[in-house]
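Field log, afternoon session.

UNIT: design team B
ACTIVITY: writing a sequence onto a fixed backbone
BACKBONE:
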């Protein structure tokens, strides 16, 4: 054993680490004597590591290169700025999966700071990881050695995969850009403008042309499942509501032309107080030309990447983020993201400059980059109070929502932000409180999309009492990730003797994959039978799926299974009564343990009479009849 060597193991292949005195497992493995799992370490130091990465991004716009700050370089005029709209600032772990590797690098630095060593030996074939750790070692003044897989056939396969990935990346980038341009041209061609009205009770609502109740639509009423029962209050009080819908291609609305026809039909049977329009119909050919000119000027003035990459060090840290964030920088400044954001600036500016004054506005907050253009345009044209409404679950590691705290408000004063943030439950409030968010901006509302869970929970209690008391029934809910779902099916099949009944399996709604499992252990059922959950008492799910919240709220015991021990995107992260397994052995222990159903902390506010929503609308100046 060499007391001077620290081994970092990424690849799962045969490697001799007996010559090192300390081992760090990058993607899997368990912590123990002289060894540590990075994933476990990150979870154990979650607040400090998340905070350090968020602080790096929040301070990045102040960095100076070629005599100007990043914010100055990305200023595109009239107060709009592509930095606030970049995927880097957005910090979405779904758009930028490299974020978690950046956070793991911060964890690695903390681990190494407590050790005495002279050499780091990395077992990996990941070029980004190799580049990052090699630079870290160079900065720390220790030697670096990388041992890649000795399986030459696998190396060749990885090389061919790297080539194909690069080709696919180029093709996807070209395709994305082409889709944006062709889609915009189609939208301009088929655009249909609608009159937007205003009076003392006007309310502007920015939403998606998705998740529409088709049954109600066929009955002659527009009803968005994003907004649920609040629409009944709008209708009862004859509020002047101006709906602006963002069109996204979906199974139900396949083209912009279809969307335009649908909105025309909705307006035909809506009252005169309610108007519907499509956001993208506000983009003109002149706007497209202006965006093109701005894009060319931007390309010419942005400093070379060799200068930019030197800025990608966290404060008081030797960790270099550039390898994992380079693609996001390039795409946000030169690529399809930059083009899309410029078009969204033109679209929102056109819309909000022409409509009458809007007393108040509501929008579905996801902290996507384009929302910053919307907020700035709203402010620029002096519309009223703007409220960002959460419509889904909030994850601890979803760093989109932890960009501003009381301590950083002054430094972030130029960031376009909503006046109020509507939060939907105690769990969400706890996450915001933990990030130091300004309490004065938070308002409580009922979780409109999750009100149905209260009814499901009541049904389930009744069914469990009458029919299946003391019987264990398990339910697997898949995710959109094939490998994660297949791993669960494999571990359940392997442990089939532990189950008294067939385990029910419901695939994710977007999944069309072919799954393999033991049909003597698992029975796949249609998603139309989602109510089968009321007959079960244990749910088994992959880490990132939001369905785990539904199962938790209605009272099931929740088991999260991930073979990489990567639970950072689990929406139930931090709740004590959630169970985690990363191996078949851990899973079998959990399956055989007591399945006392969770009484759980209250996750959402779910009062069907919507008292919190009523208080918010009263605060905004609406005198409502309930």
């Amino acid at each position: 054993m060499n007391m001077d060597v620290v081994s970092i193991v990424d690849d799962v292949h045969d490697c001799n680490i007996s010559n090192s005195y300390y081992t760090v497992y990058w993607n899997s493995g368990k912590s123990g004597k002289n060894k540590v799992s990075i994933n476990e370490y990150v979870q154990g130091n979650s607040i400090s590591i998340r905070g350090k990465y968020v602080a790096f991004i929040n301070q990045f716009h102040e960095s100076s290169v070629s005599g100007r700050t990043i914010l100055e370089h990305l200023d595109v005029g009239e107060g709009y700025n592509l930095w606030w709209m970049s995927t880097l600032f957005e910090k979405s772990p779904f758009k930028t999966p490299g974020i978690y590797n950046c956070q793991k690098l911060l964890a690695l630095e903390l681990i190494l700071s407590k050790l005495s060593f002279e050499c780091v030996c990395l077992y990996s074939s990941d070029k980004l990881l190799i580049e990052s750790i090699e630079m870290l070692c160079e900065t720390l003044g220790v030697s670096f050695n990388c041992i890649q897989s000795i399986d030459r056939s696998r190396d060749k396969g990885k090389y061919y995969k790297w080539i194909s990935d690069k080709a696919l990346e180029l093709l996807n980038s070209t395709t994305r850009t082409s889709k944006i341009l062709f889609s915009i041209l189609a939208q301009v061609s088929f655009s249909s403008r609608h009159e937007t009205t205003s009076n003392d009770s006007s309310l502007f609502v920015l939403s998606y042309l998705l998740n529409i109740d088709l049954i109600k639509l066929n009955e002659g009423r527009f009803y968005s499942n994003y907004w649920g029962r609040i629409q009944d209050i709008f209708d009862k009080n004859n509020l002047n509501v101006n709906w602006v819908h963002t069109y996204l291609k979906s199974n139900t609305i396949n083209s912009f032309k279809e969307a335009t026809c649908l909105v025309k039909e909705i307006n035909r049977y809506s009252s005169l107080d309610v108007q519907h329009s499509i956001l993208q119909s506000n983009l003109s050919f002149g706007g497209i030309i202006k965006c093109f000119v701005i894009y060319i000027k931007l390309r010419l003035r942005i400093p070379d990447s060799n200068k930019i990459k030197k800025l990608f060090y966290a404060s008081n840290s030797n960790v270099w983020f550039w390898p994992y964030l380079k693609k996001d920088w390039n795409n946000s400044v030169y690529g399809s993201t930059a083009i899309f954001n410029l078009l969204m600036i033109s679209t929102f500016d056109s819309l909000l400059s022409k409509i009458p004054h809007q007393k108040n506005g509501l929008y579905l907050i996801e902290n996507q980059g384009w929302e910053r253009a919307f907020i700035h345009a709203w402010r620029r044209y002096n519309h009223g109070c703007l409220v960002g409404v959460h419509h889904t679950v909030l994850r601890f590691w979803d760093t989109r929502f932890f960009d501003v705290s009381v301590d950083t408000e002054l430094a972030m004063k130029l960031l376009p932000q909503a006046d109020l943030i509507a939060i939907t439950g105690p769990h969400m409030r706890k996450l915001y409180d933990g990030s130091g968010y300004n309490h004065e901006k938070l308002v409580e509302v009922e979780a409109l999309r999750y009100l149905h869970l209260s009814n499901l929970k009541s049904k389930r209690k009744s069914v469990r009492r009458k029919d299946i008391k003391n019987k264990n029934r398990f339910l697997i809910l898949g995710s959109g990730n094939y490998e994660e779902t297949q791993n669960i099916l494999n571990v359940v099949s392997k442990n089939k003797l532990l189950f008294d009944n067939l385990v029910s399996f419901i695939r994710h709604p977007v999944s069309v994959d072919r799954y393999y499992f033991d049909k003597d252990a698992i029975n796949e059922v249609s998603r139309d039978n989602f109510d089968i959950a009321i007959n079960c008492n244990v749910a088994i799910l992959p880490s990132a799926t939001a369905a785990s919240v539904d199962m938790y709220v209605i009272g099931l015991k929740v088991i999260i299974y991930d073979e990489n021990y990567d639970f950072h995107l689990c929406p139930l992260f931090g709740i004590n009564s959630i169970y985690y397994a990363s191996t078949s052995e851990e899973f079998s222990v959990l399956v055989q343990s007591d399945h006392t159903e969770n009484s759980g902390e209250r996750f959402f506010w779910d009062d069907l009479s919507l008292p919190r929503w009523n208080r918010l609308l009263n605060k905004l100046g609406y005198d409502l009849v309930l």
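LOG NOTE: The mean pLDDT is 87.
NEXT ACTIVITY: expression trials, pending approval
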